[in-house]
Write a structure and sequence with these properties.
This protein is of the alpha+beta class. 28% of the residues lie in helices and 24% in strands. The N and C termini lie far apart (105 Å). Residues 369-644 form the Penicillin-binding protein transpeptidase domain.
């Protein structure tokens, strides 16, 4: 027998055997380079390896099958391992057998989402020669993974990590695993023809989006359980069980889910945890697969990585249904990674105060909010949206004119011009600015018309007294006073929040309107609570919601809505704040918030506010209260109210009494 290497190879018939010298040369070359190049099937092996890497074997000439058929099988095998990439190389070529078959070793290296290291292994493909010395690879599922049998494929599944809890003030558990019923469809009990209609019927029954749920069902494995919603115990009891039982494949599994104490508890702030949808998976670049859970909205979404930890993943071989979906119970694991539990998130909400705020607003039909901040450290203790808000985050994101509560800002601007709360201002019946007439609220007491102290103008909310300062207090003065009290500051809370805005320039009339909180000045209930806290603390208070500052590293983007930058304002001084507190105290002792004198000790302070909106005649009004008692500053807001004192006053008293345990 004659020995030959791949270099300078001349055609031999397929019965030619390699001699010992040639075999040794081949072994040396394969060991030193990892691949023998040139001829005798090596080119075809390299072409196949590249085609496998590129996910397109349709152009390969195979022995015994077409490229199109091989491509169909290839796609079917890897369809259930989304987001994975791989690289295939020819690591060695074996000897040619008597019947012209040369084995090639393919080295696979996978990058699988969720695996902490590459998944690597070798497969073998036969490169076959015909009588005319034409070489072609023989297709088999084992080219992709050596244990694959016919009608099997690869599957990526996840092992959920234990999600961190959300802990409130004093490490009170706010969000933790609580019992639920997971309602969905068992697709093994639904014919393919009935799946879309069953999905939409169930979605309508449990009030989720029918099209989205139907899409999730459509993309799920043929015998999978596809959850539609997780219902708390009380909600599950209210479900129309007869209607549910009539839906093909309906199933309800008892499990647990990360939940707050109640459905409404700080709902817009906390967010929720849900099963991923088909759209989530499609937009995740392979990071999500069916069965994963993610945070949606609020803190759960912003800190999803912190709370959710790292899921474990399993790559397995399993049998496939005709439609390519994995057959449940047939998986055998090839490689996996262990889940890493999420971390607890510590926030400032006080469970008792949050519940008290929500209870206070329970019967308010209009959108409403109560925010409570501790001035000494800026901790947000309650961030409550009323039932009428219908889950909209009124407390943090509502944008409304502040009405007469803004007279606190105007008072600061006046103090900076040398006034005190004892300085007098003229409270007239009406005042005209550039042909626009302004007046006081209907029913304003005639006893406080004329020259009165600023504290009385605050206590009885004389509009004209503050409007009269329009040519003395400049718009820049007003902007700076607002900024010194925290309006327009940048929040870093982990939720979207609006801190207030004012126009950077204003006409005389618009400026006059701004002086008593009308015009284009906008605030949120959170912004006014922070303003009140600043007056109490004697310095600008920056609201805090999340105390785990390291949790912000790598958190998803959640920019706060803030005002346009204003000139750098001078910081609020203790003397300035003392003047504001004197004026706000007068509102309780002689003004519109005398109900708060019922609190013990009798030290409360505050300000009422009413802001007109809409086109009705007379116009509708927003009702505002800002108040402080001991180390607690609050804002109360009702979108459609009868005035600050009338609508907001009783709500403020009820909440503050609850706060002190009355």
């Amino acid at each position: 027998m004659t020995a030959h290497s791949d270099f300078g190879w001349r055609p031999l018939n397929r019965r030619t055997l390699l001699g010992s010298a040639g075999a040794c040369a081949l072994a040396v070359l394969a060991t030193s380079c990892g691949l023998v190049t040139g001829g005798r099937g090596s080119d075809q092996a390299r072409e196949l390896a590249q085609a496998l890497t590129d996910r397109d074997v349709s152009g390969i000439t195979f022995a015994g099958t077409s490229g199109a058929d091989a491509q169909d099988q290839f796609d079917r095998i890897v369809a259930n391992i989304p987001g994975a990439t791989w690289d295939v190389e020819v690591s060695s070529l074996g000897e040619i057998s008597d019947d012209g078959v040369r084995p090639a070793t393919l080295s696979w290296t996978w990058d699988v989402p969720g695996l902490d290291q590459p998944w690597s292994y070798d497969t073998t493909v036969e490169i076959r020669s015909d009588d005319d010395q034409n070489w072609a690879p023989a297709w088999s599922p084992t080219v992709i993974e050596p244990s694959l049998a016919e009608n099997e494929g690869l599957r990526l599944s996840s092992t959920p990590a234990e999600r961190g809890n959300i802990l409130g003030a004093g490490d009170q558990v706010i969000v933790s695993e609580r019992p639920v019923h997971q309602v969905g469809l068992d697709l093994s009990q639904v014919s393919p023809a009935d799946r879309e209609s069953a999905a939409k019927r169930l979605a309508q029954l449990v009030d989720v989006d029918p099209d989205s749920y139907a899409a999730t069902v459509s993309s799920a494995a043929g015998d999978a359980f596809v959850p539609a919603i997780s219902l708390r115990q009380d909600a599950y009891r209210d479900l129309d069980s007869a209607a549910a039982a009539g839906i093909p494949g309906y199933r309800a599994d008892q499990t647990t889910m990360a939940l707050a104490p109640s459905r409404t508890f700080a709902a817009s702030t906390l967010g929720r945890v849900d099963e991923v949808t088909a759209e989530d998976i499609q937009n995740s670049d392979g990071d999500l697969i069916a069965g994963d859970q993610i945070g949606r909205g609020g803190l759960q979404e912003h800190f999803n990585s912190w709370l959710g930890g790292t899921k474990g993943v399993v790559v397995s071989v399993c049998e496939l249904h005709e439609d390519g979906a994995p057959v449940t119970g047939t998986s055998r694991a090839m490689t996996d990674s262990d889940p890493v539990a999420g971390q607890d998130l510590h926030i400032t909400l006080d469970k008792r105060l949050q519940e008290a705020a929500e209870s206070t607003l329970a019967d308010v039909e209009s959108p409403s909010a109560i925010v409570a901040i501790r001035p000494s450290d800026g901790h947000i203790l309650a961030l409550a949206d009323g039932a009428g808000s219908q889950m909209y985050p009124t407390a943090a994101q509502g944008q409304y004119p502040p009405g007469s509560t803004f007279k606190v800002v105007t008072s600061l601007a006046m103090v900076r011009l040398g006034d005190t709360m004892e300085s007098t201002v003229n409270c007239s019946q009406d005042i005209t600015v550039d042909a626009t007439q302004f007046g006081n609220a209907p029913g304003y007491s005639s006893a406080f018309i004329g020259e009165i102290p600023i504290k009385d103008a605050l206590a009885h909310s004389c509009n004209t007294a503050f409007i009269s300062q329009y040519d003395r207090v400049t718009h820049t003065d007003l902007l700076e006073a607002a900024e010194s009290l925290g309006l327009g500051q940048t929040y870093e809370l982990g939720i979207n929040a609006f801190s207030g805005s004012m126009p950077q320039e204003a006409s005389s009339v618009a400026h006059a309107a701004s002086l008593f909180g009308q015009g284009r000045t906008l605030v949120s209930p959170l912004a006014l609570a922070a303003m009140t806290a600043s007056a109490v603390a004697g310095q600008m208070v920056v609201p805090q919601l999340v105390t785990d500052r390291e949790a912000f590293n790598g958190a998803s983007e959640s920019p706060s809505e803030t005002a346009s930058p204003t000139p750098s304002a001078p910081p609020l001084t203790s003397d300035e704040a003392e003047q504001l507190r004197r004026g706000m105290r007068e509102v309780v002792t002689t003004g519109y918030l005398q109900d708060l004198k019922a609190l013990s000790p009798d030290t409360a302070m505050g300000k009422t506010g009413t802001a007109e909106f809409g086109t009705d005649d007379p116009p509708k009004t927003h009702a505002w209260i800002i108040a402080a008692h001991q180390d607690l500053a609050i804002s109360v807001f009702v979108e459609d109210g009868e005035g600050g004192a009338v609508t907001g006053g009783p709500l403020a008293l009820k909440f503050l009494e609850a706060a002190q345990g009355s």
